[in-house]
TrEMBL record:
<feature type="transmembrane region" description="Helical">
    <location>
        <begin position="28"/>
        <end position="46"/>
    </location>
</feature>
<feature type="transmembrane region" description="Helical">
    <location>
        <begin position="52"/>
        <end position="69"/>
    </location>
</feature>
<protein>
    <submittedName>
        <fullName>Protein RER1</fullName>
    </submittedName>
</protein>
<keyword id="KW-1133">Transmembrane helix</keyword>
<comment type="similarity">
    <text>Belongs to the RER1 family.</text>
</comment>
<dbReference type="GO" id="GO:0005783">
    <property type="term" value="C:endoplasmic reticulum"/>
</dbReference>
<dbReference type="GO" id="GO:0006890">
    <property type="term" value="P:retrograde vesicle-mediated transport, Golgi to endoplasmic reticulum"/>
</dbReference>
<dbReference type="InterPro" id="IPR004932">
    <property type="entry name" value="Rer1"/>
</dbReference>
<dbReference type="Pfam" id="PF03248">
    <property type="entry name" value="Rer1"/>
</dbReference>
<keyword id="KW-0812">Transmembrane</keyword>
<dbReference type="GO" id="GO:0006621">
    <property type="term" value="P:protein retention in ER lumen"/>
</dbReference>
<keyword id="KW-0472">Membrane</keyword>
<dbReference type="GO" id="GO:0000139">
    <property type="term" value="C:Golgi membrane"/>
</dbReference>
């Protein structure tokens, strides 16, 4: 049976741009599994049961969110993307005349 698979470039002038991940999938899942196991084991020891005042925890979450989303937020601002509906222009379509929308009198 004949198969039509895409071929890899054989000459230096051929273009081949593979998708290279910044973090390979195996390393991601390995580090996530390791982090989960460490966090799960830490729940069994009372030394890690630290009381936290909720406003401090909220401020910490906001700081982490802003630091991790800084690039995405800058990209949204650069291209004037507003994720909320107020203040946006809405497309309403073409306005048609009243005579063309009326019932036909055939």
């Amino acid at each position: 049976m004949f198969r039509m698979d895409p071929l890899l470039p054989t000459k230096g002038s051929d273009e081949f741009k593979p998708f290279i991940r910044r973090l390979p999938e195996f390393k991601f899942w390995y580090s996530m599994t390791k982090a989960f196991c460490i966090a799960f084991v830490m729940t069994f020891f009372s030394v890690f049961d630290v009381p936290v005042f909720w406003p401090i925890l909220l401020c910490y979450w906001i700081v982490l969110f802003v630091l991790t989303m800084r690039r995405q937020i800058a990209h949204m601002i650069k291209y004037k993307y507003i994720p909320f509906s107020f203040g946006k222009q809405k497309y309403t379509g073409k306005k048609t005349s009243a005579s063309s929308n009326g019932p036909r009198g055939d």
